[in-house]
């Protein structure tokens, strides 16, 4: 059995609430013992058990790897000119997705996988050790199936988003497209997708269509999540709770009824600050959700249209500055919150029995993640596999 000690940790963020050390369970002058890729012991640096190998982090900060519960990495091309037009005054609309659909359909499998791997590498260097990714830029049975087939080689958190928008060839018969998404397309992707998602918003799918699509997915054994209330106030968040979605994502708009529904549920509100930033939308008030008892996650939404960032530290900094999160709340949401949004209890904290997915942060405390915006503080990122 391989055992590795990580020693001389100036500040260790455990996310272990039971320690009674605040929201993040922060220990100073700490160490971790890892056995076969799992955390076996956490304690003070002076008391660490003997091991074959050790890593001295020289007083830096260690925290759980970030969990990115919402990304769209299976696509080709980019939409830099659309972003530039928005910054000059244009507004964002769901229809822009069709530009990426055309580029994605034209790409080879190898091109798609290369682009995916480039972005997965970026996520990892921003401290992300688990990521979810969606299809949704193919919108034919063949193209959705290949996106999920390729993605599932690299992450277990794969999401079928055939219901991203109605593609142009179905523009005048959206019901036929819903039938395809819930029928033949679902059959072909079911083996390589864990989740099913729908973009329930203006210019995409209605609440009724979303309910039908998520229900069909659940019947095929996929678990539901949803893009809700990004572009306008609507019924997407209520539907998320009704369907027991793991997460309602975006939540740029919400009202008191939405907060109540989320607070009494098992559905996480996943906020995507990169999307408001890149579409120049108003930011939701994350603190309001938190104070009402809603579980919140932060994710990158990495995609070529509305949020072309792969940086979780950037999302943390924006959530603190513009969504009124405390730094601690933002860090929790990017780690434990992301794990909850994926209904995972083996990641998002540094506790005995959990995966040793870690960030070695080049800073005296994790507060620096928001305090030093735009500065790369990630010294090294480890996943459980690195310790096996
Ligand atoms: O999560 N909102 C829907 N889907 C993506 C955007 C896709 C695009 O513009 O290409 C999102 O923001
Ligand atoms: Fe998205």
Task: Describe this protein's structure.
There is one protein chain. The protein has helices spanning 80-87, 97-106, 109-125, 141-151, 174-182, 184-189, 207-219, 236-242, 256-263, 273-279, 286-291, 312-322, 327-341, 368-371; strands spanning 3-13, 26-35, 38-44, 53-56, 61-64, 66-68, 128-131, 133-134, 158-163, 195-200, 223-224, 226-228, 247-250, 268-271, 296-298, 358-361, 378-382. The protein is of the alpha/beta class and 388 residues long. Strands 8, 9, 10, 11, 12, 13, 14 and 15 form an 8-stranded parallel β-sheet that branches. Helix 3 (109-125) packs across helix 4 and helix 12 crosses helix 13 (327-341). Bound molecules: N-(iminomethyl)-L-glutamic acid and fe (iii) ion (FE).
How is this fold's topology laid out?
Layout: E1 3-13, E2 26-35, E3 38-44, E4 53-56, E5 61-64, E6 66-68, H1 80-87, H2 97-106, H3 109-125, E7 128-131, E8 133-134, H4 141-151, E9 158-163, H5 174-182, H6 184-189, E10 195-200, H7 207-219, E11 223-224, E12 226-228, H8 236-242, E13 247-250, H9 256-263, E14 268-271, H10 273-279, H11 286-291, E15 296-298, H12 312-322, H13 327-341, E16 358-361, H14 368-371, E17 378-382
Parallel strand pairs: 1-4, 1-5, 6-7, 8-9, 9-10, 10-11, 10-12, 12-13, 13-14, 14-15
Antiparallel strand pairs: 1-2, 2-3, 5-16, 16-17
Helix pairs in contact: 3-4, 12-13
């Amino acid at each position: 059995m391989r055992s590795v000690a990580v020693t001389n940790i100036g500040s260790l963020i455990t996310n272990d609430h039971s320690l009674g050390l605040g929201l993040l369970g922060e220990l100073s002058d700490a160490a971790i013992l890892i056995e076969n890729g799992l955390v076996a012991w956490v304690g003070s640096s002076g008391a660490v058990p003997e091991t074959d190998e050790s890593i001295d982090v020289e007083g830096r900060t260690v925290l759980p790897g970030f969990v990115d519960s919402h990304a769209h990495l299976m696509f080709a091309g980019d939409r830099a000119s659309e972003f530039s037009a928005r910054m000059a005054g244009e507004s964002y609309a769901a229809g822009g997705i069709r530009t990426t659909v055309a580029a994605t359909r034209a790409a080879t499998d190898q091109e798609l996988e290369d682009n995916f791997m480039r972005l997965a590498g970026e996520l990892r260097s921003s401290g992300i050790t688990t990521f979810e990714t969606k299809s949704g830029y193919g919108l034919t049975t063949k193209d959705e199936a290949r996106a999920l087939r390729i993605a599932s080689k690299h992450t277990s958190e794969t999401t079928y988003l055939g219901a991203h928008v109605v593609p142009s060839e179905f523009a005048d018969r959206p019901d036929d497209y819903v039938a395809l998404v819930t029928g033949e397309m679902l059959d072909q992707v079911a083996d390589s997708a864990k989740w099913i998602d729908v973009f329930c918003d203006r210019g995409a799918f209605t609440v009724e269509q979303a309910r039908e699509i998520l229900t069909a997915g659940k019947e095929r054994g996929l678990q539901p999540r949803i893009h809700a209330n990004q572009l306008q106030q609507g019924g997407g968040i209520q539907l998320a709770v009704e369907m027991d979605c793991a997460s309602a994502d975006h939540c740029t708009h919400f009202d008191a009824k939405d907060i109540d529904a989320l607070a009494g549920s098992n559905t996480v509100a996943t906020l995507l600050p990169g999307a408001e930033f890149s579409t120049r939308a108003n930011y939701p008030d994350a603190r309001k959700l938190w104070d009402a008892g809603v579980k919140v996650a932060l994710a990158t939404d990495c995609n070529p249209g509305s949020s072309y960032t792969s940086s979780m530290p950037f999302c943390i900094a924006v959530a603190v500055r513009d969504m009124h999160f405390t730094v601690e709340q933002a860090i929790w949401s990017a780690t434990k919150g992301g794990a909850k949004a994926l209904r995972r209890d083996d990641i998002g904290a540094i506790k005995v029995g959990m995966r040793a997915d870690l960030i070695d942060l080049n800073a005296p405390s994790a507060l620096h993640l928001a305090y030093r915006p735009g500065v790369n503080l990630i010294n090294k990122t480890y996943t459980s596999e690195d310790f096996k």
